[in-house]
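Lab notebook page, bench 4
Experiment: in silico fold of construct C2
Operator: M.H.
Input chain length: 121 residues
Purpose: comparison with the prior construct
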Amino acid sequence: QVQLVESGGGLAQPGGSLRLSCAASGFTFSSYAMSWARQAPGKGLEWVSGIYSDGSDTYYADSVKGRFTISRDNAKNTLFIWQMNNLKSDDAGVYYCNAHRTTWGIPNDYWGQGTQVVVSS
């Protein structure tokens, strides 16, 4: 059974930090690119960052570049870690972990249930 379980969300003050984790199981973690997406209240889903399956490259939305850091540990095969620094009110929302792989042109995606981030003083 495929599972992606996010953790680490909660309340942070503006300028503060949070770390979100995504524990993966039930599939070959090292074969999938991983991403974080978020949904702010009343808004659509926004992709914010991704990392290649082997960790060789990362991508960030302009809104988080320089403040957030995405990383993964394939040796553990289960952990996907995300460091969020200098949080802003616009960073608030539900953060979702995504695993993606395309095989023979057919995309395959798994999603977690999400973890809530609140940024408030």
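Observations: The mean pLDDT is 92. The radius of gyration is 14 Å.
Next step: discuss at group meeting.
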